[in-house]
Amino acid sequence: MKETKQLKQREHDFAAKLKQASVIERLKAYIDHRRKQVEGQEPTELPLFSPVSINLDLTSACNFACPHCVDAAILNSGEALTLDTIDGILNTLIPEGLLSIIILGGGEPTLHKDFEKVVTLIKQKGLQLGIVTNGSCLERVYRVAEILEKHDWVRLSIDAARQDTFESMHRPKSGLTLKDVLEPAARLKGVNPSISLGYSFVIVWDGISVNGHPLTSNLDEMAEAVQLAAAYDFDYVSFKPCLLRLPESEKETLLHGVKKEAENRIRQIIERNLEEAKKAGGDTVKVLESVNLRALLENRIDALKHQPNMCHMQFFRTVLSPAGIFHCPAFRGVEKAKIGTKAGYSSEAAFLETQQRLSESINTFDAASECCDIGCFYHHVNWWLENFIRSVESIDEIETILDDNFFL
């Protein structure tokens, strides 16, 4: 057995996260299960574990109208998860191994009528928690900020450093300004200094259009965003490239239809502005690059879109929303990726039924075909799992990593 190591790449090293002490046994059980299938042994049932991490969409309601939103088609449907449903979900999944929850997506979570109660419930049950918000109702985050812990985080989707860009990018229905978001965000750290506070910035370049309407480029605001982050006590700025959802396939995509010459030009401009952003952050604000942004900058987007036939990460993380349970954030709301109803984790019987559908999805969803336009965050770990399953390496030789970060 290899010695236990620390998790060094906390944000995006998903393979390392699966090797953490509290996760590694289900990793080994999954690999063993898949190997038996590959070898043609008697059919075995999928190991009975919950996801390590779930994306929890509390509500479809949203008070912004961001033109680049990949979930625009499912917003403001009037649907929401009830507190009782969420309580049942936690009571079912935690004994089966749930370790973290990210509240985000499909709507603005702080608009849920029981937002504070949901956060309190999650923390009372000992889970790591991340919250993604547009920052319009941060007073609701204040009310629960004291109960957040060292590895918990709050990330604001800002995507701009100037008021006109912020307004164009988000179209807040209440007339909210960029300053209205930044000033209360800074006070969060005063309530609880242990919270990790993030400034999320989706990079938009010239030439991106949605439904024939061009999006506002924010490329030249990257360094300014880091300066604002430092001024308002953020811990990091997370840069990621703009994704769009193709209407004909409902898939998220990156650089779809962009010619190589244009892609090279985009890459050069982003590299230049990212370097300026890192200089602006200095030792004060950490600059994070998403997996697909790093691939774009290294000219590896085509490789990132090349998936194994089987998406193994379905087993380790799912999306729970008012529209149902989906096996991937990139397919939120897409029927072919649905593995359960919104109550699909709310009882032991429902959980078993959902796990059966998950097993079918793992075996039948062809990621090589379905995800060929997606710059997948989980590309590396999916290929690591695929190659390990088909190797002769012993699962007992997988190094164990100290528990730290269970977000997937």
Keywords:
metal-binding, 408 residues, Radical SAM core domain-containing protein, alpha/beta, two-stranded antiparallel ribbon, 14 strands, 10-stranded mixed beta sheet, iron-sulfur cluster binding
Secondary structure layout:
Blueprint: H1 14-18, H2 24-38, E1 53-56, H3 83-93, E2 100-103, H4 115-124, E3 128-133, H5 138-145, E4 153-157, H6 163-170, H7 178-191, E5 196-203, E6 209-210, E7 213-214, H8 222-231, E8 236-241, E9 244-245, E10 252-253, H9 260-281, E11 286-289, H10 291-297, H11 301-304, E12 317-321, E13 324-326, E14 338-340, H12 348-364, H13 367-370, H14 379-389
Parallel strand pairs: 1-2, 1-12, 2-3, 3-4, 4-5, 5-8, 8-11
Antiparallel strand pairs: 6-7, 9-10, 12-13, 13-14
Helix pairs in contact: 3-4, 4-5, 5-7, 8-9
Poorly predicted runs: none
Fourth-level CATH superfamily of one domain: Aldolase class I
- State the distance separating the first and last CA atoms: 25 Å
SS field, number of helical segments: 14
Mean pLDDT: 91
Q: What structural category characterises the helix and strand content?
A: alpha/beta
CATH topology of one domain: TIM Barrel
The radius of gyration is 21 Å
The counted number of beta strands is 14
CATH class of one domain: Alpha Beta
Beta-strand content estimate:
5-15%
Largest sheet composition = 10 strands, mixed
Helix content: 25-40%
What's the SSE pattern?
A: HHEHEHEHEHHEEEHEEEHEHHEEEHHH
Can you name the CATH architecture of one domain? Alpha-Beta Barrel
Strand order of the largest sheet: 11-8-5-4-3-2-1-12-13-14
**Global outline:** globular
InterPro entries: Aldolase_TIM, rSAM, rSAM_sf, Sulphatase_maturase_rSAM
Keywords: Iron, Iron-sulfur, Metal-binding, S-adenosyl-L-methionine
Cofactor: [4Fe-4S] cluster
Organism: Desulfosarcina ovata subsp. ovata
